[in-house]
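ugh finaly. both done.
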Amino acid sequence: RFTARQNIMTGLTEYTGVVGARLERVAEEQGLRAELSAHLLNIADAALQLQLSESLVVQATDAVRVTESSLSEIRRRVAIGRNKRADALKAEARLKQKQADLLAQQEKLAQLRRYLGFLTGLSNEFGVDSATEKYAADESKHDVDLSLRADIALGKTVVDIRKNEVDAANGGHLPNIYLDGSYRPALEANQQTSYFGGVVAELPLFQGGQTVENANMAASRLRQAELELRQAERKARVEVDDARESLTKAQAEFEAYSESAVAAEKNYRAQLSDMRLGIATILDVLQASEDVQLARTAAAQAEYRRQIARVRFFVARGLLFPQASN
């Protein structure tokens, strides 16, 4: 006897299976987008730190050069009795410190280049464009579309997956319908070949409460997914607000430190002028030069915080790449 069976409808298994497979693929894509967002933010942070480190190396090099020049002048003045030997010793100590700072900054720069190469998969020979103006956004707009964020989109997809599971569980109450056919050839002379074909329906009258329990468990998972989505939305709003506030503060901080650096440079030039007039000493000039370096360092660090805050606010809104300008 030969038999054949073709399912027509087995509850909602076929339908929910197709829908579920599509939703799982969408969820994987959204999960990859969330990971990509975090990875690109790490790359941006490393690139901006590299830019900061390069700036600090240049400043440390200038500080060493200025300190060496000042030390030579102090030694000349000591030789003619215009300065004490203690002044030269102080300058020498400052020079050693500046040289050590330079070596430390150079080592940090090399480490950052290796780290950025690791993140990007590039060799040590690469350039970095750390301009962040294209990531600028209107900070006054508070109506951010959270659906652009990968974590929110993933949460909504998970809710759709749980709804599909509820449909699949409720499909257990529906009948199973299939085509059934059989063929029995005649094996003896007194037998006849027989055929059978028909539509068969199986009704799930009683399965010991298993179908109801499956539906209840699926509904419970759906409620949990909806709760997690609402929590993710609240967390996303807090992250966007925090990123906006951090950007506003970083911008104000950068402006203040920039003004401080300008004032320190004016003071340095004034000390040079006073030294030529004989009302300031070489040590005053050296101290003013150190103040300039400290102010420039603080301004460079503030610029890094401003730029990374700009990128973080961009990413917090769920964006990955800036729009290409025409």
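ok and the 2nd:
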Amino acid sequence: IGLISQNSLTVDNIDKFTIEIKDSENDKLIDDSNIIKVTVSTTNKLLKFSTENGGDIKDNYNKDSFEYNNNDSKTIYVKTGTSSGLEILKVDATILDKNISQEFTIPIISSFPDTISLIYVDSSYANGLYNDRYRVTATDKYGNPARTGSKIYVGAVSGLIKDDQEQDIYVAGNSTNKGTIKKSTNGTEFSVNKNNYFENVSCYDTLVVLADENKLDSSYLGGWIVEDKISNNSLLLKGDFNIAETSRLSFLVGNEKRFDSCEQQPKSVSFDSEDNTYELQKDGVTYFKLEYPPFMVGKDVYLYANSYDKKRVGVSMRRKLWGTGIN
């Protein structure tokens, strides 16, 4: 008994595989008339069968097993559930008066990131720089660890841009100057009501949308690179935004640099990946290191992590840098 299938199936998806029954001596398909009955079942119940070709209607897939006869090569349609893991497919066949069985292992893999979390792990010091290590955990929309190999992009804002009144662009709490994000003819647009508020913002600065009250959708949270300035109160952001216009968002605008008044020069934070990109490993986890000079100790930094595999997903966190001291 042979199985022709993809290397793996994806959660909550309709797929198919083919069962072939061959003569072990000459490796040729057995005559259909000799196949009395074939039963295909699963051990871990991670997928369901349809009666025949269930098509695209998921409700058609409600059987725990599938039976057929008089067919040496049968295509079977299945729908995976919402849990990832290893499914054991068992095929029991009656060929004339002989019973044979075969088991196959089918990996059912999770989907792409739907939520991301950031957690501080520990700190170290080497070559004149502090290194803070963080853990990124991502899950798909069903709560499974997100797919291995999915890319996570991280960034940091350590210095805030000033508005037209020389105040930090940091909007939260009960501020009347909260932002609105929407999809426009230009792309993804972020705006405020206050004129000239973004006067000092430049291309490649970063806008970070912060979680606040009931504003918790990962579609807009996290970091956005400023692609262009539409006006002094409206920014064009790099990346797609595909949900409804959302207003009253808390946010900040800045970049990775902070000015050192003692040495009269900017200092930066950086990451241990040249392009700030990391891949999820087993269990939907990856780690990154944030590197910073002693000058940054005691300062706040705003970290963010984004994923763009199937849709944009983001998260951010505020953390005070303590070096290897109090954490």
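summary for the 2nd one i guess: The chain has no helices and 27 strands.
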